[in-house]
């Protein structure tokens, strides 16, 4: 999904759902959402949230993992 409510704001989101076909209660979910705010013509502020979930992960890995990143984006 991509939304551009104004010329200076963009919201982009991608999600995946991956079930195990022989056991639907064993699934994975992955989602990434980014917000891009244009500051000047070639300079933008970007924040991205990533979330991953695995119903039955390997023993030492947590079921849910997430990450939030922020940064400046310069385009040539």
Helix/strand layout:
Elements: E1 2-6, E2 9-20, E3 23-38, E4 43-54, E5 64-74
Antiparallel strand pairs: 1-2, 2-3, 3-4, 4-5
Quick tags:
76 residues; mainly beta; five-stranded antiparallel β-sheet; elongated
Summarize this structure briefly:
This protein is mostly beta strands. 0% of the residues lie in helices and 74% in strands.
Give your account of this protein's structure.
- With 76 residues, the protein is mainly beta.
- The chain has one domain.
- It is 0% helix and 74% strand.
- It has no helices and five strands.
- The protein has strands spanning 2-6, 9-20, 23-38, 43-54, 64-74.
- It has a five-stranded antiparallel beta sheet, with no helix packed on it.
- A hairpin with a 2-residue loop joins strand 1 and strand 2 (9-20).
- The chain is elongated.
- It starts with a strand and ends with a strand.
- The mean pLDDT is 94.
- One letter per element, helices H and strands E, the order comes to EEEEE
Q: How is the main sheet built?
A: 5 strands, antiparallel
Mean pLDDT: 94
User: What percentage of residues falls in helices of 4 or more residues?
Assistant: under 10%
Query: Which stretches are poorly predicted, pLDDT < 50 over at least 5 residues?
Result: none
Please indicate the percent range of residues in DSSP E strands (runs of 2 or more): over 45%
| Global geometry | elongated
Total beta strands:
5
Q: In angstroms, what separates the terminal alpha carbons?
A: 25 Å
User: What number of domains?
Assistant: 1
Q: What's the total helix number?
A: 0
The structure class reads mainly beta
With strands numbered from the N-terminus, the spatial order across the biggest sheet is 1-2-3-4-5
Oligomer: single chain
Radius of gyration: 16 Å
Protein name: DUF481 domain-containing protein
Organism: Gelidibacter salicanalis
InterPro entries: DUF481
């Amino acid at each position: 999904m991509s939304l551009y409510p104004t010329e200076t704001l963009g919201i982009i989101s991608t999600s995946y759902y991956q079930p195990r076909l022989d056991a639907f209660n064993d699934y994975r979910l992955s989602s990434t959402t980014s917000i891009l705010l244009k500051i000047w013509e070639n300079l933008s502020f970007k924040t991205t949230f990533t979330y991953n979930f695995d119903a039955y992960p390997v023993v030492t890995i947590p079921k849910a993992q997430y990450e939030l990143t922020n940064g400046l984006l310069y385009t040539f």
